[in-house]
Amino acid sequence: MPITFRYKKINRPAPLEPIHAPAIPITLIGRKEKLDVIALVDSGADVSAISKDLADILGVDLAGKQEEVVGIGGKVPSVRTRIDASIRNAHERYTFTLNVMVVLDEKIEFGILLGRRDFFENFDVTFRENEEKIILKKVPPRHDAVMRI
To answer: What is the distance between the alpha carbons of residues 19 and 138, in angstroms, rounded to a whole number?
Structure first.
């Protein structure tokens, strides 16, 4: 059964005005903590990303190889890791694993970004921009998918 969320008001750094965007409540499950956050669903992002602050709270292992990711803000240092997550409404709950890039530059302000790899592979995602709604429908795992770390 699909889960529908209304767009949320997202504050952006000055001088940009706040916008309504496809952001959903999600629970991140780390070694130390479970954390309820609002995550931006970004069809233009290849991978999911979280801030170092969130990774520290969750107890994420950041000992992996440091690499650079390229985004709208340019190149930033990051570490690739995995985080369990879940989304739910009153009737449904889905738990899945995300391969995420932890952005190590603490000057970059954001929480969590859900990109196409992993998140979009777990759900059929429908944006209803004119209604300011996002609809997520769980799909069965692909057996032909390549395992990515």
So the answer is: 27
Quick check: 50 and 56 in contact, CB under 8 A? no
In a domain, residue 147? The reply is no
Q: Along the chain (149 residues), what's the average pLDDT of each consecutive run of 10 residues?
A: 93 86 95 92 92 92 86 83 92 91 82 89 94 94 57
What's the rounded Cα separation, in Å, for the pair 38 and 115? 14
Q: Write phi, then psi, for 34 (nearest 5 degrees).
A: -110, 135
Domain that holds residue 53: 2-9+21-138
Residue 117: inside a domain: yes
The verdict on residue 105 lying in a domain is yes
pTM for this prediction = 0.85
* Per-residue pLDDT, 145: 53
Residue 68, CA distances (Å) to 18, 89, 103 in order: 28, 35, 9
Q: What residues contact residue 20 under an 8 Å CB cut-off, 6+ apart?
A: 7, 8, 9, 10, 132
